[in-house]
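ok, trying the design again with the full structure, not the truncated one.
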């Protein structure tokens, strides 16, 4: 019963404040949203690093750009394969893998196709439920489908596949895990990886599926596996020979993403700090007026028999409710923005709300402690006079 009465007193007090309470809410909402964006960027940068580590080892893999300069009237694929063989024969190089992503039709449905050669299937860390041997020669081309297609297709189902009017039959031998990621079409930033959804993995090999035009495209996506980090120097020699144009280790690639994000995060942190300071200044202004105009009310409450503990509960309840309401409103706004902008992964915006809430609660605890100390130092007469 006592808790119900306290609750009623808190809500009655909030109704009396009206405009001041709305200002308080507005300032908290701004702080929550600015902090949420800042924490979202920090979390996203860390997620990109972790996802890349899961997909491919960052210590001993290098992304390579092969030199495609050639004369007319030559078999370009033959020339590029010779360059690829030159890379493979270099000391310290363990494996050279290629991949390519494109749209394919499966039973007349448009989905994503991930073409991998044998080395790529060994280098990338996919969690596959079923057989992993997609390079086994058989009547139908073995394929692996993403987890979200399990409802439509079962293992051992055969499907009609059409890639740029090149039609063939595939047999499903396994499913990817729902948490598996792969390269996106925007390599170079924190969007370099994306979840594998509505996609199939197709083996690229002359004994499985081969397409001359596709082979040329696959030379754009090369990952080289080295024995140890120092072996990356061997690629510099190949570069000087004109075999490759450029290369970057996965370790440096992660650093590049983090540095790019650091600049954005730094700007967002500055923005968040400025907004937070402005909001805090406004908040302090509201608190000062809140204290000045309500000192007499608190003095009357103390005169009527209210204890300092009850007064603390009242203040705590009012500010606590404002934090909860503003947190929920800012959460709805942040989630809505992520839905509208199709930001992925979606859970980042939700996780970022937690540190934002903790920061605000910390500010609230400091404020409450300071205010209680202020009340303790005052006499009822000084409070009645508004001092």
């Amino acid at each position: 019963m006592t808790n119900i009465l306290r609750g009623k007193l808190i809500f009655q007090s909030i109704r009396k404040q009206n405009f001041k309470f709305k200002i308080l809410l507005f300032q908290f909402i701004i702080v929550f949203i600015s902090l949420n964006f800042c924490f979202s960027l920090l979390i996203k940068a860390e997620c990109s690093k972790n996802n890349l580590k899961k997909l491919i080892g960052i210590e001993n893999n290098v992304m390579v750009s092969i030199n495609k300069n050639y004369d007319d009237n030559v078999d370009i694929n033959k020339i590029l394969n010779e360059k690829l063989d030159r890379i493979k024969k270099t000391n310290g190089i363990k494996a050279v893998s290629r991949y390519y992503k494109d749209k394919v039709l499966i039973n007349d449905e448009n989905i994503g196709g991930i073409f991998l050669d044998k080395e790529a299937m060994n280098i990338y860390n996919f969690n596959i439920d079923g057989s992993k041997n997609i390079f086994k020669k058989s009547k139908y081309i073995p394929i692996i489908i993403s987890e979200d297609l399990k409802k439509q297709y079962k293992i051992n189902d055969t499907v009609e596949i059409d890639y740029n009017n090149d039609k063939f039959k595939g047999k499903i031998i396994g499913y990817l895990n729902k948490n598996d990621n792969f390269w996106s079409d925007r390599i170079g930033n924190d969007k370099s990886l994306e979840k594998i959804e509505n996609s199939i993995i197709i083996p690229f090999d002359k004994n499985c599926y081969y397409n001359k035009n596709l082979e040329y495209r696959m030379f754009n996506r090369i990952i080289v596996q080295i024995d140890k980090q120092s072996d990356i120097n061997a690629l510099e020699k190949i570069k000087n020979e004109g075999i490759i144009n450029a290369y970057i280790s996965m370790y440096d690639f992660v650093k590049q993403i983090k540095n790019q994000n650091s600049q954005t995060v730094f700007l967002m942190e500055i923005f968040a700090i400025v907004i937070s300071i402005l909001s805090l200044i406004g908040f302090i202004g509201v608190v000062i007026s809140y204290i000045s105009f309500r000192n007499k009310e608190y003095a009357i409450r103390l005169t009527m028999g209210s204890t300092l503990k009850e007064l603390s509960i009242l203040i705590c309840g009012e500010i606590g409710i404002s934090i909860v309401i503003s947190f929920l409103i800012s959460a709805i706004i942040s989630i809505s923005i992520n839905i509208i902008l199709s930001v992925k992964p979606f859970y980042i915006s939700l996780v970022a709300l937690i540190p934002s809430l903790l920061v605000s609660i910390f500010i609230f605890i400091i404020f409450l402690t300071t205010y209680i100390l202020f009340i303790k130092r005052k006499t009822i007469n000084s409070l009645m006079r508004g001092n």
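Keeping the full-length input from now on. The chain has two domains: 2-53+257-384, 68-242.
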